[in-house]
Amino acid sequence: MAKVTLKGVKKYFGNVKALDSIDLEIEDGSFVVLLGPSGCGKTTLMRCIAGLEELTDGVVIFDDMDVSELPPKDRNVSMVFQSYAVWPHMKVRDNISYPLKLKKVRKEEIEQRIKWVSDILHISELLDRYPAQLSGGQRQRVAVARAIVHQPSVLLMDEPLSNLDALLRVKMRSELKKLHERIKVTTIYVTHDQTEAMTMGDKIAVMNAGKIIQYGTPEEIYRKPRTIFVAGFVGSPQMNFVTMKVKNKEERYYAENSALLIPINGDFAGDSIVVGIRPEHLTLENREGYLSFEAQVYFVEKLMSESIIHLFLDEETKIVVKLPYDISFKEGEKIRVFFSTESVHFFDPVTTERIEQ
Ligand code: ATP
Description:
This protein has 357 residues and is an alpha+beta fold. Helices cover 24% and strands 34% of the residues. It contains 8 helices and 19 strands. The two termini are 39 Å apart. The chain binds adenosine-5'-triphosphate (ATP).
């Protein structure tokens, strides 16, 4: 196991800036998720940690050792890919033992390690099969077994569940998390799936355009998104954003539009402000201290356990509300929606950064 530290990591491919001054500290034994949209640099960052890409600038440090110049084989890292990458001509047993044979580990110890890893990944019955005789989920378990059998300092996983169907993905998600709790190897996990990130990560690094925009626990990312990008990327349905005017009345600041007047704590010097509120924080119940607005229904989506109500606040502003399944409305109906001021997020429209309340 190792603590992983990145300082000022930059990576250019010709003129393409894939990574832009990445600073990141990953605690020994933790499970960190790199989350972001396609092309934001997740895989490149992972490959820089593995030593598969040469850095344009910056350093990668494992514990106290600068490994930036070390080739992958000397970093004691393992990778698991979306494509499984198990060798088709080798039986499962040989796929798993291969990294140990390369390291010239004694035969008895290889047997012990195969037993250990196949027990924890539930593949003991599959050891004498070829990969072609396995399901996708079983193949991915074999790939994970091969990656952890030699007890790497760092385990890197690049979208390992993307090729699995939805049910299996959910099952493997919890299995990988349980596996990590057992073996506690420092794990860096790439995904663009926010549910995977929120359920698996001890910490999440949200990336965009080659930068880490926010690094924090899932709760911090959800409750205090640092920018409009993070607020919009994490949460489903997406957070509602409404740009409002800033009014100063009796020495207090308010965000104001034709339907709403929301107090802003503290000073905000701009003329306008972006107000964010999550669909799940809007309700039909009026509780003490809640604010409200009226809006017109234009579309209702029925999901398994919830109704997603799309509303027009005014001609230009759409709002989405997440309500229990049994609540429904007709198109054109006017409804009153309530919310607590504590659930409101404010962002600077110029910098897009969060305004702390
Ligand atoms: P995805 O989720 O689609 O896999 P990603 O976040 O992993 O995306 P990267 O694969 O790291 O993104 O790519 C980051 C940027 O670097 C992209 O603009 C990509 O086109 C570019 N890039 C990656 N590899 C190379 C390469 N070998 N040569 C040139 N450009 C590259």
